[in-house]
Design brief:
764 residues; 23 strands; 43% helix; five-stranded parallel beta sheet; 2 domains; 28 helices; TIM Barrel
Length: 764
């Protein structure tokens, strides 16, 4: 029985890649320095997996920014607009980061490629772009160079990983009409064959192809693309075994397709969908090896060895041990790196947890228990029993409040048209009112200030005085450039979820539990270990302070319950909707406290509501019902004159637009700039009734958009939706940006709003 890993975190235990990348972008280190940091991380990762006893260890799972972007480079799928960068620079990193982040220097001004969520995770990938006559060619040496080095360290255990050909196409976008991206499979497969044969010639024994779209709803054409691709590869690739990896959902109606692909092994996710094992075993052909994803690659809790062993035993009984591989459910990219670095967590709770490094050992221990090591099994049982019985987890008063929720607890007093008139009279805003999503740049000074306070080097009075000064400065600047609805900048906040989790009961926090979100952006998700409640006000102090500094409307800023759930490591011992309702009641109490403090506009961010959507359409109705209800619980109870905003980022809304409308937020702000307002079409077709702020510039890129560019986007938006319902704002919060680019972009944005008022000609 072999063991394998599908992928490992690439940021480094101390976020070395983040720091080196940002230094490189700032011109403080050169490409050689960056490559050295990357190679050291790769070598440490390989050594960690080797020491854990893993038999098949991934390489090419490392990326400087995103593995899908790496695949586009490898396949020569570079959009034409980047040819100018290639002509201007011989450094491959200039092209690579231009595609990821945009390019604005040496007389060039090129937008970044679109970015969206990787299936139902908080990881963002760079979306491939395709034309009807798209050509592919093998380009770039990364996968081959990394395999050569990995082989020196790992020998035959080194297993190259690449995004499979069909998922690569399906996760991309057509940039022209008149074709479907699945049509490109015959152009693409020859390049994959060339890559695989070259890897085989270099000595690869296994190649892992990630095909997560096998767990999605597929059309007939998409299923035929899978059959064609793997039949063609099998006919023309020799000397290497192929393993197709699926994850995040059951194969369901794609089971027959998946088990009959012309490959040597298939990986399935038995954490998300343990029930699929029976059908897979019933249909599996002779000789196919089955990789069992039994260790959760996306959460922080210890594996339940008894449950995993029941699945392993069932598979071995049918297939024999030599046709079974043990593995995490998915790449460990989505897990924090090492629990050993966490010395301050409550020891009782820490004993219930496992990070990426520990999950490798869980895979190995499951094999050892299968072979007869009962001591490991008994230790695991004891840890799980401790968690089930702990009074730190269960609070009856919280459970009782959730169980007593009624329909009235999720309903505003009046319908939107009535509220809209009352709110317009109250705030008297101009047409195309301007605002931002909430956060302003978290400069080194702000981060150092917070670090000093946490270490005890500053008193709370000294700390808060400095935060007050930064807040006032940001308010004066917003007034100066003419923004209509202001924000306080969130200088007191470390993260939009962590900040709230620190003030809610039922959460714990790590020191080094970082996970990559996109590029150099890392987040440190809270851990929800018990029942959740709000012991005191969380934001009222800073919102009222900020509001007192200006005569303009000041938004109160909150994070919504589904986003807190999605961007935390969540309890796995109760249904997710129960945990979400506990959070919703806590946020509801905070909303009422802000309203009582005379904060008239309250934004409840639900950036992750689309992200939480089940991958299969058949499972979505239940999720959307409780997710929308949870948001409505947060906003219920406020007066008609209180304006509720929400924000959602980097998502496709076509298939859930009616549920977005059902949230009944007075104003929704969304990302639309990278897609050139394409995402607004769903709102237009639906005739979305409430107000909306389509983002007019991309905050994930350092480039500064021109006034004319943003005015053009506003005109597109006004051609799709009623102009009197449109707001003007960036795509997302500005926490990760620098002040010079932020100020320049927002000044241009305010000018664009003024220009739109004049050219579109609607009255206030």
């Amino acid at each position: 029985m072999l063991t394998q890993n599908l992928g490992y975190p690439r940021i480094g235990g101390q976020r070395q890649l983040k720091k080196a990348s940002e230094q490189f972008w700032a011109g403080k280190i050169n490409a050689t320095d960056l490559h050295e940091v990357a190679q050291k991380i790769r070598e440490e990762n390989w050594q960690t997996q080797l020491e854990a006893g893993i038999d098949l260890i991934p390489c090419n799972d490392f990326s400087y920014y995103d593995q899908t972007l790496d695949t586009s480079i490898l396949l020569g799928a570079v959009p034409q607009r980047y040819e100018a960068v290639q002509a201007q620079s011989d450094d491959e990193l200039d092209l690579y980061f231009a595609m990821a982040r945009g390019y604005q220097k040496n007389g060039l001004d090129i937008t970044a490629m679109e970015m969206t969520k990787w299936l139902d995770t908080n990881y963002h990938y760079i979306v491939p772009e395709f034309k009807a006559d798209q050509e592919f060619r093998m380009s770039g040496e990364k996968i081959f160079n990394e395999f050569k080095i990995a082989k020196q360290t790992l020998g035959q255990k080194a297993k190259p990983v690449i995004l499979g050909p069909v998922s690569y196409l399906l996760l991309g976008k057509e940039k022209e009409e008149g074709f479907e991206r699945a049509d490109l499979i015959k152009n693409l497969v020859p390049v994959y064959i060339e890559i695989f044969n070259r890897l085989a010639a270099l000595g690869a024994k296994w190649i892992q192809l990630d095909e997560p779209t096998l767990a999605l709803d597929l059309t007939k054409k998409e299923k035929e693309a899978f059959e064609y691709a793997y039949r063609s590869i099998a006919e023309q690739v020799t000397g290497v075994k192929l393993l197709v990896a699926t994850y995040f959902e059951a194969l369901l109606d794609n089971t027959q397709l998946a088990v009959n692909l012309s490959v040597q092994a298939l990986h399935i996710d038995l954490v998300r969908a343990p029930e699929q094992l029976d059908e897979v075993l019933a249909l599996i052909p002779d000789q196919l090896i089955l990789s069992l994803g039994v260790v959760d690659g996306r959460n922080v809790w210890k594996n339940d060895y008894e449950k995993s062993l029941s699945l392993i035993n069932k598979a071995v009984e049918k297939l024999g041990a030599d046709r079974v591989i043990l593995a995490p459910s998915c790449s460990l990219l989505h897990s924090p790196i090492d629990l050993e670095l966490e010395t301050e967590i409550d020891p009782e709770i820490r004993n219930w947890m496992a990070f990426a490094k520990q999950k490798l050992h869980e895979v190995k221990e499951l094999k050892q228990i299968f072979e007869g090591n009962n001591a490991l099994l008994e230790a695991n049982k004891a840890a799980l029993a401790s968690r089930r019985a702990s009074q730190k987890v269960h609070k009856q008063v919280v459970k009782d409040r959730v169980s007593s929720i009624t329909d009235a607890d999720s309903t505003r007093t009046s319908a939107f048209p009535i509220r809209q008139e009352i709110q317009r009279e109250r705030f008297n805003l101009p047409a195309f009112p301007t605002t931002t999503i909430g956060s302003f740049p978290q400069t080194d000074d702000i981060r150092q200030l917070r670090a000093k306070f946490k270490k005890g080097d500053l008193t709370i009075e000294q700390y808060e005085k400095s935060i007050e000064a930064a807040t006032i400065e940001s308010i004066r600047w917003q007034e100066e450039i003419g923004l209509d609805v202001l924000v306080h900048g969130e200088f007191e906040r470390n993260d939009m979820v962590e900040y709230f989790g620190e003030q809610l009961d039922g959460f714990l926090f790590t020191k080094n539990g970082w996970v990559q979100s996109y590029g150099s952006r890392c987040v440190k998700p809270p851990v929800i270990y018990g029942d959740i409640s709000r012991p005191k006000d969380m934001t009222v102090r800073w919102s009222t302070f900020a509001a007192a500094q200006t005569d303009k409307p000041m938004k109160g800023m909150l994070t919504g319950p589904v986003t807190i759930l999605q961007w935390s490591f969540v309890r796995d011992d109760q249904p997710r909707d129960v945990t979400t309702n506990q959070i919703a009641l806590a946020i509801h109490d905070e909303v009422l406290a802000l309203e009582k403090a005379n904060i008239g506009i309250i934004q409840i961010d639900e950036a992750a509501i689309r992200e939480g959507l089940p991958l299969r359409k058949s499972k979505r109705a239940h999720y959307l019902a409780w997710a929308v209800r949870a948001f409505r619980i947060t906003a219920s109870g406020v007066q008609d004159r209180t304006q509720i905003h929400t924000h959602m980022c980097y998502s496709e809304f076509n298939d859930i637009i009616e549920h977005i409308a059902a949230m009944d937020a007075d104003v929704i702000t969304i990302e639309t700039s990278r897609s050139q307002m394409e995402l607004l079409q769903a709102f237009a077709h639906f005739e979305y009734p409430n107000e909306i702020g389509p983002g007019v510039y991309d905050i994930h890129s350092p480039r500064v958009p021109t006034t004319e560019e943003m005015t053009s986007l506003l005109k597109k938006a006004a051609g799709l939706l009623p102009a009197q319902n449109l707001w003007v704002n960036p795509d997302c919060g500005l926490k990760t940006r620098k002040w010079p680019e932020t100020k320049a972009a927002l000044e241009n944005m305010v000018a664009a709003a003024q220009q739109a008022r004049e050219e579109i000609g609607i009255e206030a």
